[in-house]
Amino acid sequence: RVKENGKNNFQFYTPDMNDAVTRKMQLEIGLRKGLERGEFNVCYQPQVDVTTGKVIGMEALIRWQHPELGNVSPADFIPIAEETGLIIPIGEWVLREACRQNKRWQDAGYTPLRMAVNISSRQFQQSNLVEVVRKALKESDLDPQYLELELTESIIQDSKYAISTMHQLKAMGIHLSIDDFGTGYSSLSYLKLFPIDSLKIDQSFTRNIHTNLKDAALVQTIISMAHNLDLKVIAEGVETKDQLDFLQLRKCNEAQGFFFSRPVSAEQLSDILQKQSSD
Ligand code: C2E
Ligand code: MG
Ligand code: MG
Ligand code: MG
């Protein structure tokens, strides 16, 4: 890596870089073994209807417990999994696990909820993605309307292919959303081309709603734009009551964040659902 870094760029080699390279290699090797060794698990973060306060869905988020490194953040290992292609088997595992878990909750008698699963661009570009999704639904016997795939703006690179894949997924009845909306340096024109259902406002905007007038303006504008396009909006990273009030006033549909719950284990989410159903 270090040597590849540009033709005329002189690079100082520092112990820090050495650590970073070693860690990256360690993660890459670990990722290859992680699946077989059962080191991954999925946690779930509730998504709440802003008007009723009820949990109406959840996002599946992968967790990795490395034998030596302990908990490794997805922000650190997902990019490596993408680079190495390991995101394909890992992503498929998450998808199957999330579908199975959602069906389990339905079988337990809870009001059916929508399960959102992150799909990275590398996964989205794999030619058999539609088949992989179909298989996960079939195997879990989950109704496709209770599955949502979160895509990022980066999939737009190859828009012809992306649109066709999206249409196939839509035809199955699956929901599609754009994750981290507004952070991807992409043109807005895809919004009229892509058959999507909702936008997720990135947490970097939500965070500063009350301290930065520009972030407040952006959030408000994203909500109105989405509604004018007949899309739903969900705000990510909601941590305070004030942020929720702001979103409520501006008719944001859904919210997700530490204010409601951190990502939790399936067992802990069952408790949340249990409480809600006895309210
Ligand atoms: P994301 O899809 O945008 O997920 C939201 C992230 O924000 C999660 O971080 C979640 O724990 C965190 N979060 C939720 N509410 C709050 C809040 O109120 N405040 C703050 N500060 N953070 C909050 P996490 O789980 O570390 O995941 C990071 C990213 O890694 C995800 O961002 C997603 O891009 C990726 N990722 C996670 N799981 C998967 C997966 O199964 N497949 C793929 N392809 N990517 C995944
Ligand atoms: Mg997401
Ligand atoms: Mg996001
Ligand atoms: Mg993100």
Automatic annotation (TrEMBL):
Keyword terms of this UniProt record: Membrane, Transmembrane, Transmembrane helix
GO cellular component terms listed in the entry, alphabetical order: membrane
Keyword Plastid in record: no
Domain EAL: 24-277
Name of the protein in question: Diguanylate cyclase
Organism of this sequence: Paenibacillus beijingensis
